[in-house]
Amino acid sequence: MSTDFTQDHFALFNLPRRFGIDLAQLDSAWRTAAAEVHPDRYVSAQDAEKRVALMRATRVNEAYQTLKSPVDRARYLLQLAGVDTAEETNTSMPAAFLMAQMEWREAIGDARAAANVDALESLLRQLRTDVKALEAELADVLDSQADHQAAALAVRKLRFLEKLDQEIGDAIEALLY
User: Fold this and answer.
1) Are 128 and 168 in contact (CB under 8 A)?
2) Averaged pLDDT, 157-172
3) CA-derived radius of gyration, the chain
4) Closest CA to 12 of 78, 76, 82, 71
5) Which pLDDT tens digit goes with each residue over 132-143?
6) % residues pLDDT > 70 (the chain)
7) CA-CA distance, 165 to 125, in Å (whole number)?
8) How crowded is residue 28: how many other Cβ atoms within 10 Å of its Cβ?
9) C-alpha of 61 from chain center
10) Quick one: which H or E segment has residue 70?
11) How many CA within 13 A on the CB side of residue 143?
12) Cβ contacts of residue 77 below 8 Å, gap of 6+?
């Protein structure tokens, strides 16, 4: 494999440049590419060739991790389109979304205070259902509508939900261990 460092991540794995990708196809393409560029295949090579092999392996793994994660994949697609998600600077969200965040945090706090692991696990399942719905919305706005601003907002929303997921997971872990 002659990893072209100018290729985007999708081209590297011979995938269409879209949010909705076949994850099994990504996994298969990654395994093939990773086997081809694995540094162990270059043990007896010259130092310069070993360094290139390591760079190629790193590139393949970073590309795979980016495309495997829905949030990172969406962020990457937007980056390719020249759109900054402004996650660090743009914290404006629709009022309904912010209210939902407050309700989530209150429910998490109540369940944590009551040491109710079942309630926390139920919240986690609900949250992950919401995440899947938002990912479906993201696929639509990116792949069908090419609405980059709506996609950037969806990425920012997903970041909020990722933080809630982590918070719930931490609360469950704290109660169980």
Assistant:
1) no
2) 95
3) 20
4) 76
5) 999 999 999 999
6) 97
7) 10
8) 12
9) 14
10) helix 70-80
11) 14
12) 17, 18, 19, 142, 151
Cα(162)–Cα(85) distance, integer angstroms: 16
CB 106, CB 165: distance < 8 Å: no
pLDDT digits (tens, 9 = 90+) for 54-109: 888 999 999 999 999 999 999 999 999 999 998 888 878 999 999 999 999 999 99
Q: What angle do CA 95, 147, 128 make, to 5 degrees?
A: 55
C-alpha dihedral sign at 119, 123, 124, 129:
positive
The rounded distance, in Å, linking the Cα atoms of 177 and 166 is 16
> Which residue in the block uniquely carries the two structure tokens 């919305």?
137
What is the Cα–Cα distance from 92 to 132, expressed in whole angstroms?
Answer: 22
Under DSSP, the state recorded for 143 is I
